[in-house]
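Q: Here's a chain of 156 amino acids. Please give me its 3D structure as tokens.
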Amino acid sequence: MNKTYMVRLTDDERQELVHLTKSGKAAAYKIKHAHILFHVDANGPNWSDAHVATALHCHGNTVRNVRQRFVEHGLAAALVRKKQAQPSRPYLLDGAKEARLIALRCGPPPQGHAQWTLQLLADQLVALHVVETISYETVRQRLKKICSSRTYTSVG
């Protein structure tokens, strides 16, 4: 049997939600969560989750999750999306593998090339068995994150 979370808005919370929905200056999901809280309020309309989901064109789980976050963590938590505990996919390059990428990038380019390209770096990481497969785009994103210079020699 599912736990029931009863939402009871105070006057201050209701005023904050009215301001949020009428100003229209918030993200669409925040406004939708505010409308959900209005409709499930036990001191107000007290609609069922299925009725709210149908009326607001969202999934029933969204209504249930917003209700639960309000009861357990308060209004601020109910208006924002829940953060993921961990990413959907693990990173291809952890600390040690990223260090190999940086060392490779700072070293001399392969024979016949004037400088490293992203594709050359990706191919070299696979050839050195640092990773099984990696795209040049992943290499680009990691180098951008660590603010790596694209030049081999010192600029200053």
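Q: Can you summarize the key feature?
A: Residues 53 and 60 are 5 Å apart (CA to CA).
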